[in-house]
């Protein structure tokens, strides 16, 4: 027995080794250490079983969606797409792979997370990292100067899924963008209105939307004494304020990024500020900031933005927050991020005690990027853009948890065509076919002689509300019994009128 | 001038070179031959322009979908998804990449068309080649023994897009499959019913569905004297009968595959046979075929299948055709393929005279594959499956051509909030926001003072049926003008009741 314990512990190591590198045979050493304990044949079998088992695993960081998850996903997508359509958006789609060249130099440090395709001859290809760069490429390539579009599709990142919470290597993005030369802040305000509407409708609890402007940040850095070339890297450090305390952020600024204590402290004063339109007005009077052209432009636009948000009645959730920085390089103006107030338990694979309950954090973000399209245009023609991306995976996780104990229907079947006696397969198939032909969602069990009980059970398990029960006597009388599965009430319908009657019943009771 | 001609001809070669290998600088030789002709600076500019231009091209064989194409795609998907749901199907999704191992050994010769990801450390990954193998992997991995599911997603093939007609490297598949141990031919018949319903609803003109059975084919090969080990390769040759004459197919059998003339002639007799249930009965009496166990099983099931198809009222389009073979290795029983009767003009890039009008060919296909799931199960447990895949890209092409001259709406906006005078931006934004809040699809131009004409033009261009026109006098009177863009009829609505009234009008006239 002790022998066996020892063996299985080693087998576990061996198994995890195989899982990691399925294409490699286990090292000879391991095999040798296993063999003396048990018969070689048993070892060979286990080895085979492990390899075969690995044949049908998935890449970690990716996942299948089962029917229940798909039903939730469909519900979430419907809410988001309805909102995008309500705002008059068209939709486009782009290929999942772009020429590697297209993605190069757009994501800064994150470029290392791009998935490349193997060079099998022909062009060098990469999987798309987000939907914004393909959108900009699409605009430049088709010389489109204004469009309001949404795009819902999967993007790919070589992130370490174990190190990030609720993050996947393949995940959906839901993007809404407005491209075109328009009067200031009107499209920007609509993007915020959209985030507000979607988060309200998804009913995920309280949330707030932080707003800032890259020009205000840059102006602030300038008046605080940050050298020009350090703007972007200090911006990245400020971006960590949602996860780190100011003291740690300051340490990074001073120790790693080489700012003086004084400069860091001055930044610290600004980034602690939060408010609304009033804060923008107050900062426009700030003796230092008001001297900076960039900051003034940003603050004036911020005032204007809040006046539009007031008209859209969304200011109760929007906060002008000078600590919001956002990572990506391509933003040029207003930036924003929506944050849910609720926390969720950490995913199962995360066992760190400090991660027992994590803040869901950002579920939407975006901003203005007026320079990106120009990077794809041979003549550098710019198309101003502003957009928002909904972080749908985190929303899925929350919705899944909310419905974890609920029964979610995964089909829409309205009626099961069943029989009470044997030898009625033909009658069942014929009636089912007639129902399909009139658009009624119907199922029939694929058995010649299913038991009535198992047919009723199928209805209860999958939530089918009605069952049409064929019987020999009833068929002779020219009728079919229709039973409400939940209430067990029954009515008799005349066979020749069943399709019509069933349609009426469905419209009346189950729509 | 002659100099220029010469230069530009060479430039064309040079350009096409750059397009093929965008990441490489042009070879020094080419540059040298270009330079003597023109000033170095001009050359450098052209070189730069070519490279920049290439920066935003797409991989050939992939494409963007513009809003009009997306509107058509949505319409097609809605028809297909409605049908799948009418038949009680759930849906699942799987990642776009699978472990390379999962796809290995499933596609025979076609394996060379699989896209591999670059080995950037970690597992070896490939892009999915179809949805059937990931489905089988999903069933085995989750130990699911019965499910009726649909899956609509993109798949990837390293096909040469210039050599194939209407084929892409990235394209959608719409799959419907029934997995489970059921009574013979009932799910198989439902798959054919689904193809029939979808092709009818898509309204693509006349079509027919060819049906055959792998067991009948194998039995036929056996009684004709084909050696066992040549069954699959002869099957591939038979599969070419839809594109090649019998004489050429026969030549391939004899000259390339090494069959004797006699054997080939015997096959030729069988594969020219077409019919229905009667043909199955006739072949069951065939002195040779009736001696083969496999063929008998297939023919008996074919008879049964036709009896169910009769009940489903679809036999008018279904033909039992002994020449149908289908390429993939994994089929084990019934196979089918739907073919449209109409031809379409060849795509623009195809200039071969013989391709002026091509048959659309197969738009759906599938069959029974009872062994595939077992390949993924450690204990080899089998889950019988039958399914169908709708070839959606060809259907898109036809629908696009049908609507090429039509105006297709790409948004669903119901009303534009406009103004007749200046300085009414705030009132416009406020009313638009109220409309959004009640679920009305509304747009507003992002200009402070747009001209009424350009607002009306926007409605006409994008098909918005109604325009609410704000005016100073009207606002004082507490009314808003609502204009029907097409008929130019106008009504005056009281401001406080506009949302309610507009909802009524929309329900009454535009739903």
UniProtKB/TrEMBL annotation, chains A, B:
InterPro entries: aa-tRNA-synth_II (IPR006195), aa-tRNA-synth_II/BPL/LPL (IPR045864), Anticodon-bd (IPR004154), Anticodon-bd_dom_sf (IPR036621), His-tRNA-ligase (IPR015807), HisRS-like_core (IPR041715), HisRS/HisZ (IPR004516), HisRS_anticodon (IPR033656)
Domain of life of the organism encoding this protein: Eukaryota
One example of a Gene Ontology biological process annotation: histidyl-tRNA aminoacylation
Recorded catalytic activity of this chain's protein: tRNA(His) + L-histidine + ATP = L-histidyl-tRNA(His) + AMP + diphosphate + H(+)
MF GO annotations: ATP binding; histidine-tRNA ligase activity; identical protein binding; RNA binding
Domain Aminoacyl-transfer RNA synthetases class-II family profile, first and last residues per copy: 61-399
Keyword Nucleotide-binding: yes
Annotated Gene Ontology cellular component terms: cytosol; mitochondrion
Chain positions recorded as L-histidine binding sites: 130-132, 157, 173, 177, 326, 330-331
PROSITE patterns reported in the protein's UniProt record: AA_TRNA_LIGASE_II (PS50862)
Keyword Transmembrane helix set for record: no
Enzyme Commission (EC) number: 6.1.1.21
Similarity annotation: Belongs to the class-II aminoacyl-tRNA synthetase family.
Cross-referenced PANTHER family: HISTIDINE--TRNA LIGASE, HISTIDYL-TRNA SYNTHETASE
Cited NCBIfam families: hisS
Protein name stated in the entry: histidine--tRNA ligase
Organism: Sinocyclocheilus rhinocerous
Gene: LOC107758537
